[in-house]
Amino acid sequence: MRRKRCMLLLACPVALAACGGIASDTGLEAVLRVAGGQFYRGSIDKLAGSGGPNVVDLLNSQSVITPGLQNKQISGRLDPSAMAVAIGLAGDVGYWILATDVPDADSPTQPTFHASLAFSPSLPQTSYDLMVRAISPPDAIGPAAHAALDVQQTLPPSGALVISLWWDTESDLDLHVVDAYGVEIWAGNINSYDRYAVTPTTDAGAWNEGGILDFDSNAGCVIDGRCNENVVWSVGPPAGDYVARVDTFSLCGNSAARWTVEAFLDGTSLGRAEGEAVPSDQRFSKGQGSGLTALSFTIPPP
């Protein structure tokens, strides 16, 4: 059970009125998010304050991460005086503060913390210093505990043409792609191949000629952890104009979701777009033609 305490920690910019109902910064531009945390601007490695409690230990079981990774867990124990922890990546635009949890049974005097981390889908491929600092009121911030994180880029699935959508919260976003023939591929029509519009064939694999949606991620807010959808042509796509749209079917209770759309032709990027889904984007019809245009491109004739 999480320790429930109404508290005021530190002077600005670290002040946290946990029960005061103050408006919060959502931290949408930060490359790291911490579920249930309060966001504050400024890099955690430059956070003022000293003489605070120590992080006794930091458990990080996953040192290699991918862009858009969800639900990465970290935890640890703190000195007895700690009432909160600051969590962030060195050099990020801000950090997050979480209240402490109750001690473990085997360390009854040491409060604990348990955090669920999510990373931006546009996270650059580099190394990061994840920092955790314990805090006790009114203005004592302890030294940082460090965990090294290495980013491994998520590769799109193989195919002649691949259009990918990634997002960074447990929301239900849908990828819609309109191909050169004007056929829309989405969860309600997962394959652009039309067996009635082509010359009859006995080829059992002819359906592979279309653009195919691989998965309807987080459909109906049944969270599957993928937060990624792809439309893939396994063979050469038809020449012409293409449009990719992002439909915010539901944010599933989240305040927003950052998304990235990218198209690849034979492994080479044709274009990339980034955006943010907000509650007003849920107003669309949820069917064919829904969503906001993210990316347009042209496939030249062979």
Textual characterization of the structure:
This protein is an all-beta fold. 0% of the residues lie in helices and 43% in strands. It is built from no helices and 21 strands. The protein has strands at residues 8-9, 16-17, 32-34, 38-41, 55-60, 64-65, 72-78, 84-89, 94-99, 112-119, 127-136, 140-151, 161-167, 172-178, 184-185, 212-213, 228-233, 240-250, 257-265, 268-277, 292-299. The strands form five sheets. The chain has a six-stranded mixed sheet, with no helix packed on it. The termini are far apart. The relative contact order is 0.16.
Layout of SSEs?
Layout lengths: L7 E2 L6 E2 L14 E3 L3 E4 L13 E6 L3 E2 L6 E7 L5 E6 L4 E6 L12 E8 L7 E10 L3 E12 L9 E7 L4 E7 L5 E2 L26 E2 L14 E6 L6 E11 L6 E9 L2 E10 L14 E8 L3
Protein traits:
302 residues; six-stranded mixed sheet; five-stranded antiparallel sheet; elongated
Content of β-strand: 35-45%
What is the CATH C-level name of the largest domain?
Mainly Beta
Spatial gap, N to C terminus: 62 Å
Report the radius of gyration as a whole number of Å.
23 Å
What's the CATH topology label of the largest domain? Immunoglobulin-like
The CATH superfamily name of the largest domain is Immunoglobulins
Into how many domains do the coordinates divide?
2
Overall outline: elongated
Spatially, the strands of the biggest sheet line up as 4-9-8-11-12-6
- Given helix and strand content, the structural type is mainly beta
Spell the H/E element sequence: EEEEEEEEEEEEEEEEEEEEE
How many beta-strand elements? 21
Helix count equals 0
> Low-confidence runs (pLDDT<50, min 5 residues)?
1-23
- Determine the fraction of residues in helical runs and give it as a percent range: under 10%
